[in-house]
């Protein structure tokens, strides 16, 4: 059994820190290594999660069980389905009050198949790096908890179509074709080493013609008509950006929706938008820019699907 422990302190009430740890649905937005979380079950204290996260240069996925103890500010976890070479993994988050500050401790205990020294050393590096990144961001978030609602922006745009959902999903899935199909996308490099998990670098332009590159990891669920993603390299105004494309058919047609959730970098607002710009200015700017780009994708997906139907 190998063990790893990381700690951080923050000038924040223990309940705030515990709440950020307990609500795993926001982890992809809040914690850099975490890419996507699907809640499989929850009864108020016991929870099962399917998780995707960056593990060094790779993307790992596993299923975890968690026991939430709000009274003791503890969250215990255990991986039920592991990713090789992990044989077993368990641990605990603990929040301890220290007067006007709190300490958060993240402990891991794990075994490795065959106990190969190289695999053990690699996992120790990944666990330490990911734990440190999570704890540093946790302290950053907690110390801004009184304005966190203003720094997080979520919105969606939906179009209603009469077209085969498979054709619409195909357009969204084949993002490597976007430079030929979308006017604001000028370059794309996409790799899908594992089925349904895409790593992409996209060069695009904003409404004023400014070019910028983003990097994303996308988890694709064709059976559910969903593609969820997290940008691992964001625009300067954003600390984090997650989103989803969904295709929802019914008896009379289908809804195609683009969802965005972003975390603002408060210290970059004036640098990007000019002196005197506020959080509200940044929220309006992002709603318009991200919404505009998404609506272009939705419109072109609709055109692609309906054109294909007419050809058939």
TrEMBL record:
- The residue ranges of the Coenzyme Q-binding protein COQ10 START domain are 13-118
| Coiled-coil spans in chain | none
Q: Which InterPro entries match?
A: COQ10_START, Polyketide_cyclase/dehydratase, START-like_dom_sf
Write down the SUPFAM superfamilies for this protein, in alphabetical order. Answer: Bet v1-like (SSF55961)
Which top-level group of life is the source organism from? Bacteria
* Residues of the signal peptide: none
Stated name of the protein? Putative cyclase
Lineage of origin: Bacteria, Bacillati, Actinomycetota, Actinomycetes, Kitasatosporales
């Amino acid at each position: 059994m190998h063990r790893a422990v990381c700690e951080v302190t923050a000038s924040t009430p223990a309940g705030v820190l515990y709440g950020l740890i307990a609500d795993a649905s926001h982890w992809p937005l809040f914690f850099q290594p975490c890419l996507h979380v699907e809640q499989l079950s929850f009864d108020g204290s016991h929870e099962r999660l399917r998780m995707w996260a960056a593990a060094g240069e790779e993307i790992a996925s596993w299923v975890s069980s968690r026991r939430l103890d709000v009274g003791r500010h503890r969250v215990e976890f255990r991986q039920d389905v592991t990713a090789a070479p992990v044989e077993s993994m368990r641990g605990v988050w603990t929040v301890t009050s220290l007067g006007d500050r709190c300490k958060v401790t993240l402990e891991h205990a794990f075994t490795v198949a065959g106990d190969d020294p190289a695999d053990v050393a690699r996992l120790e590096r990944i666990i330490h790096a990911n734990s440190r990144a999570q704890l540093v961001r946790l302290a950053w978030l907690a110390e801004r908890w009184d304005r966190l609602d203003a720094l997080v922006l979520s919105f969606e745009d939906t179009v209603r179509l009469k077209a085969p959902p498979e054709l619409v999903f195909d357009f969204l899935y084949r993002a490597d074709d976007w430079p030929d199909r979308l006017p604001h996308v000028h370059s794309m490099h996409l790799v899908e080493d594992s089925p349904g998990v895409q790593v992409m670098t996209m060069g695009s332009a904003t409404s004023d013609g400014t070019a910028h590159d983003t990097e994303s990891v996308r988890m694709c669920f064709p059976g559910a008509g969903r593609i969820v993603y997290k940008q691992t390299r964001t625009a300067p105004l954003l600390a984090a950006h997650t989103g989803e494309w969904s295709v929802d058919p019914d008896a009379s047609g289908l809804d195609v929706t683009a969802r965005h959730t972003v975390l603002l970098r408060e210290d970059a607002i004036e640098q990007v938008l000019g002196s005197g710009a506020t959080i509200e200015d940044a929220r309006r700017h992002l709603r318009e820019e991200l919404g505009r780009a998404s609506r272009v994708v939705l419109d072109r997906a609709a055109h692609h699907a309906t054109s294909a139907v007419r050809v058939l």
